[in-house]
Amino acid sequence: MAKFTCPYCYGKHDLRTSGLKCSYNLRGQSSTCVSDVVKEPGGWIPDKDKARCMKCTAARKSVFCNIVKKEIPTDFLNDESLSIALLGAKASGKSNYIGVLIDEIRHKMSAGFNCALSLASSEESRQYYNSHYYEPLFKHGSVVDATSQEDIPPLIFPLRFMDKKNRITKVAALSFYDTAGENLDSTDDMLINNRYIPNADGIILLLDPLQIPSIREKLQGKIPLPQQNTDVVEVLSRIVQNIRDVKNIRGTIKIPLALAFTKIDALEEFDVLKEDSCLRSESEHLSRGVFVQTDFESVNIEMQDLLENWLDDELVQQMKNFEKYAFFGLTALGGVPHGSKLDGKIRPRRVLDPLLWLLAENNYIRTVKK
User: Fold this and answer.
1) Residue 363 in contact with residue 287, Cβ under 8 Å?
2) Is the pLDDT reported for residue 234 higher than 90?
3) DSSP characters for 75-114?
4) CA dihedral 282, 284, 290, 295 (to 10 degrees)
5) How far is CA 131 from CA 127, 272, 325, in A?
6) Contact (CB, 8 A) for 302 and 277
7) Largest pairwise CA distance in the chain
8) C-alpha angle with apex 337: 334 to 340, nearest 5 degrees?
């Protein structure tokens, strides 16, 4: 078995560094299988028999991460995985974003890019997504509860791309962690609670524009403003330090970083965005079924211009720690909630853009210049 990425710890493993079980005599009547392999206590296959057992067709094999002791879904063993570290400071709207993002992949991206997101790969992920994200947002019309600081399961969903004859051509095994925003408030908390960040294939960092002092001043009294939280530059600085410390990196960081400002709907409603802003419309990527470079560049340039007006150049300087980075603006809900209740129907816009950029950077989807 070749090396694979564990969707739980984001570490690289192979059969030698993984646990292995098989379904033969699953109820425990005997510890010996049809190939005369004697299982160890707990039903584990001995190291010396792992290679032979993987070739056996008499039973289902289950591979486990030895670090977190959880079973690795089959899609993560047989295909290239794309581990996305989805981060956001407290009150950035990260939980709402995750809930809407997965729904957008299933119902919008699937048609445009001829792909399908599987919810059956991990029963734990499916149940957690339905109860924690989908039902509050799409059934009860309320925002998702803020993420607690306790351990929560990652959302693990294979994304299968198909050709014109609906044959699978590529699989991006996506995994998302909805870690509590408080875990970004100190370097020590980040090292303990976000160990997966340095091993990610891409980072989506959500930031709340309503935390920026100049925007708060303009919108004061017009909409309910969230409590002032950790400065956006501090959050990014800690992420950079976390990756450098763990990976011992002195040069630029190779992980692509998508910096996405949420709640663009509030900026649109109160004319913080200019009238002809490209952020007021959906991207071209979905309608054309490709990643459109000119659309991406328009958003990237506009967001950088806005940042120059909102903040000094310190945030952009922090971004330069990464070899590849880009700026995005989006709204998951499409309107400012009234307390915990949504303002009518969910109207997402540009929610998929950061993910599509990462997929394009990793050659999962095709890019056109214009």
Assistant:
1) no
2) no
3) HHHHS-EEEEEEEE-TTS-HHHHHHHHHHHIIIIIHHHTT
4) -100
5) 6, 35, 33
6) yes
7) 74
8) 135
CATH number, domain 79-368: 3.40.50.300
Return the amino acid letter for 200. Answer: A
Neighbours of 116 (CB within 10 A): 18
In which residue are the tokens 């974003």 written? 97
User: CB atoms < 10 A from the CB of 146, how many?
Assistant: 12
Question: Could you give the 3-state DSSP secondary structure of residue 39?
Answer: coil
Neighbours of 96 (CB within 10 A): 25
- Going from N- to C-terminal start, the domains of the chain cover 4-72, 79-368
pLDDT per residue as tens digits for the range 60-109:
889 999 888 888 888 888 656 788 888 887 778 889 999 999 999 999 99
Query: What local confidence, expressed as pLDDT, does residue 231 receive?
Result: 73
**Alpha carbons 38 and 344: distance in angstroms, whole number:** 60
In angstroms, how far is CA 91 from the centroid of its own chain?
A: 17
> Which element (helix H / strand E) includes 168?
strand 168-176
Calculate the CA dihedral of residues 264, 270, 271, 275 and round it to 10 degrees. Answer: 70
